[in-house]
Amino acid sequence: MRITRRVAGRRQRAALVATTGLTATALLLSGCGGSSDSGKGADADGNITLTVADFGQFGYKEAGLFEKYHELNPKITVKEDTTAEEKNYYPKLLQQLNSGSGLADVQGIEVGRIKEIVDTKANSFADLSKVIGVDEWVSWKAKQATAPNGAVIGAGTDIGPMSLCYNRELFEKAGLPTDRSEVAKLTAGGWEDYLALGERYKKKAPSGTYFMDSASAMFNAVVSSSPEQYYDASGKPVYQESASVEQGWQLAARAASKKLTQGLAQFEDQWQAALRKSTVATVVCPAWMAGQISTYAGDANKGKWDITSAPGDTSANWGGSFLAVPKSGKNVDEAAKLVKWLTAPEQQAAVFKAIGVFPSNQGAYELPDVKNATLPYFNDAPIGQIYADGAKSIPEAVLGPKDGVIKDSISTQINNMEQRGTSPDDAWDAAVRTIDKAIG
Q1: Contact at 8 Å (CB) between 144 and 114?
Q2: How far apart are CA 141 and CA 137, in angstroms?
Q3: CA 17 to CA 383: how far, in whole Å?
Q4: Cα–Cα distance measured from residue 385 to residue 307, given in angstroms and rounded to the nearest whole number
Q5: Could you give the 3-state DSSP secondary structure of residue 318?
Q6: Where are the beta strands (DSSP E) in 169-253?
Q7: Rounded to whole angstroms, how far apart are CA atoms 341 and 357?
Q8: In angstroms, rounded to a whole number, what is the distance separating the alpha carbons of residues 226 and 245?
Q9: 225 CB neighbour count, 10 Å cutoff
Q10: Integer Cα distance of 317 and 320 in angstroms
């Protein structure tokens, strides 16, 4: 699925993470010394410039990692070329792959694109399986970037384990528990429990407020927490028969009909205003979403929000990317070393501390800056623990090349149910027509 965090989803700074502070010693760990590359990309003095093309915000600049890498490797300078939105970045990447020119030494790839890249362009990228410690990543993350021949074409950067963000002040006014452990108990049975909690909220909800911001976000969380989503293992689209799609659709239709949702398109102006005005009580929260809430809810709402585990005993993943090394680069060996270093536990922990995106490298979970991390904005929620626990319960799912088209088409029709009152049957038929036309 194409889970682009867009400008608002990835570029904004996350709420300040309170940690023990990453030491300079930790950053030095797994640093690369010297150059074993062929030297074809070096100047007369042996200096090399590595280019990294990515989108949104990967956090390397904010964490000071490129400067640190130069300190560890004085003859190597890293330059980053960032495209604001992934939807503009990806077509350019495909064009460059097709022409065989213009590629950076390192290219970022969004999780929603990795399946298509693995299926159609794997031979254009270096195999990193002998460079990175594949077993260090959560297993499903590594498999997403693994080609049928066993080549690993991308090293995992971040992931988006699911949690639930809720407005403590609105919960209190509605007569609901505000302690995060009590809220978790109320939704322990899964998304049905989540809607039941919404019914309770609605009975005493402050005027002009809603239980959730978007039923399509809930739909995405339901589907993403299942191993069967839009495609089966053979690559056949099965969204019309998928149990998780059916469950997510029915829950979204119920939320819309019972007016539990404000029906907002996430990240758009109205959604931002709703956070600022405190008109929504809950937001489905992948790890990076906390930064969005704190940014748009603003300082006036600091301490009013909290974070607890996602409904049910199976978490979901929403987001994440990879770093890949094109074979056509002049500095393939050095680029692979840079990728290994950037995705090592210490560096992923530094990025988490800087911008709040959660590591995919499991080795980072025991480092103090992840394990002990809290978010002061969210009532000091222990996000390191919450996200790590969520990451461990995310099922291995089959990704398809057109997941994003399917998800976006369904989300559009859910929004029509919320905002226009479109019947569930008419909305579903419209989604199917759009999807079948797009995927053939």
Answers
A1: yes
A2: 6
A3: 9
A4: 11
A5: strand
A6: 210-212
A7: 17
A8: 9
A9: 28
A10: 8
| Alpha-carbon distances of 166 from 173, 212, 259, 381, rounded to whole Å | 13, 9, 18, 11
Cα 29 to Cα 65: distance, rounded to the nearest angstrom: 12
Do residues 398 and 229 touch, judged by C-beta distance below 8 A?
Answer: yes
Q: How many Å apart are CA 269 and CA 376, to the nearest integer?
A: 25
Helix-then-strand count for the chain, H and E: 19, 9
| Tokens representing residue 249 in the block | 């659709």
The encoded tokens of residue 359 equal 């590591």
Q: Where are the alpha helices (DSSP H) in 205-344?
A: 215-224, 243-257, 269-277, 289-297, 332-342
Is 211 strand, coil or helix? strand
pLDDT tier, 37 (very low <50, low <70, confident <90, very high otherwise): very low
pLDDT band at 18 (very low <50, low <70, confident <90, very high): confident
Residue 20 has pLDDT above 80, yes or no: no
Looking from the CA of 237 toward its CB, the CA atoms found within 13 Å total: 17
**Separation of alpha carbons 274 and 272, rounded Å:** 5
Coil, helix or strand for 218? helix
Distance separating alpha carbons of residues 369 and 359, to the nearest angstrom? 11
State how far the alpha carbon of 252 is from the alpha carbons of 147, 153, 260, 344, 423, in Å. Answer: 35, 36, 10, 39, 12
Question: What's the mean pLDDT in 339-348?
Answer: 98
pLDDT, mean over the chain:
91
Whether residue 212 is predicted with pLDDT greater than 60 in this model: the reply is yes
Asked whether the predicted pLDDT for residue 16 surpasses 60, the reply is yes
DSSP 248-284: HHHHHHHHHHTT-B--PPTTSHHHHHHHHHT-EEEEE
H/E element, 163: strand 155-167
CA distance 279 to 363: 39
Instruction: Estimate to the nearest angstrom the gap between the alpha carbon of 325 and the chain centroid.
Output: 21
Residue 30: pLDDT over 50: no
Instruction: State the amino acid at position 332 in one-letter form.
Output: V
What is the per-residue pLDDT across 147-201, written as a single tens digit (0 to 9) for each? 999 999 999 999 999 999 999 999 999 999 999 999 999 999 999 999 999 999 9
The 10 Å Cβ neighbour count of residue 191 is 23
Distance CA 158, CA 357 (A): 6
Between vectors from CA 424 to CA 418 and to CA 425, what angle results, nearest 5°? 150
Per-residue tokens: 243: 């149990």
DSSP 354-377: HH-PEESBGGGGGSHHHHT-BBGG
